[in-house]
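Example 3.2
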Amino acid sequence: MKPQIAELLSAAIEALKSQNLLPADLEASIQVDNTRDKAHGDLATNLALTLAKPARKSPRDIATALVAALPASELVKKVEIAGPGFINFYLSDASTNTLLRTVLEQKEQYGRSNEGAGRKVQVEFVSANPTGPLHIGHGRGAAVGDCLCRLFEATGWDVTREFYYNDAGAQINNLALSVQARCKGFTPDHESWPEDGYRGEYIVELAKSYMNGDTVEAADQSFTGAKDADDLDAIRHFAVAYLRREQDLDLKAFAVDFDVYFLESSLYSEGKVEAAVNKLIENGFTYEDGGALWLRTTDFGDDKDRVMRKTDGGYTYFVPDVAYHFDKWQRGFVRVVNEQGADHHSTITRVRAGLQALNADIPQGWPDYVLHQMVTVMRGGEEVKISKRAGSYVTLRDLIDEVGRDATRYFLAARKADGQLTFDIDLARSQSSDNPVYYIQYAHARVCSIFRKLTENNWSWDLAAGSAALGSLALDAEKDLIVKLGRYPEVVRNAANANEPHQIANYLRDLAGEFHTYYNSEKTLVEEVDVRNARLALAEGVRQVIANGLDLLGVSAPQEM
């Protein structure tokens, strides 16, 4: 209802301008908010307070004039002025009934929009190097990143999911050496074991598969084991393909897919790093000092200039990032979101500086970053630190196997990414109101059970009957539930714009709570036909919105629990 109330206020402003009560050239910013206290109505605006200074009148006088100039509307039951000049709107039964009909008619489309239509957005997430199973930090990135993609799709964007990984470098070399040692029968306590080698059980499995001559197929590559323990290059290729396949399986179990797999090595083999460096030199934003090549990142807000090319001729880690993001820009992505671990914080300023220094009309502040903090896994009040498979950390698969995909996805996405997260396995497995995902799913299942009981009683219900009976919803709790449903599209829009999928989780938890309270206090399947049909319509509206919201989180909406 916010847009409709804003339209009424806009009309009132124009009326006051015509009466010379407001300056003719005044440009007003109209903001309509939800009230915190139902005693103050359903919606409110501080518009009068913002207009007082340019109008040279008191906020209270402006509020009085605005209310008097509001066009008549069946959507509004009452308007009040509160405090220094706040305007509170009480929605009519007609408005709430119209709102519920909209939910019932739009069904799965309710809450979706075309705000991003015709524009491309790329979300880079997970982006784990193929050196081991996905850990719980990768899982948080996968949950948040995939939810972001779902939100963007719900708001009309053309979405590309991208996985970027390093297929070369020191970590990959250590991986190859570790697998080679296992191929030769060595264990981590052997003197020839690489100093920074990987020790998890998966290395044993990997080596065995290579020596068996197995063929592994990942989403972006395949390779057959050469069965030669001395062929380090073959071992390296096989190990990357093997672990990429394992990561694919983990992500499939998590219901996460990607459109593009981007190799860091391609930035060098295709000359994109050199091209970016040459462009920065050509644009005059570099200089040499101490045998190194520097970028004047201080020209773009950094606290000091940064080394681009070291004295040994190698590039520092942010340089390929600049080249990679320039490639994203050239691919036509007007919006890019990088969902990464908090350790990437230091790269943001210098990557953005490098992009600005390219003079390629890239907007300032592009790309967006969503950085997630660490996850601590608890069981029985104690931290769980290691996995039998990975050895040194808890894997994503461990959690999925233990608590299921739904609970894992919800818990990892339900908190704001920049806050540390404690994943309580016992809570995630519990079937109680303390478990938010269970609480939300149970609300959906409860509605489904109501309709099963309806059939068992040989009663019937359809959309037309429910819509026609909405006038029988007379309780404040019923109106409050409908108003809550009406806020869902705004929550989706705000969550997408702010890159914050946890807003959806918070909304669903609140909606489920209101519904459970109503369900426990009011019987739905009453004898009076109109009341029954109206309450069934309300229950179906709640079920639909919960299902729509859970889908944005990648969580199922069960019919029975």
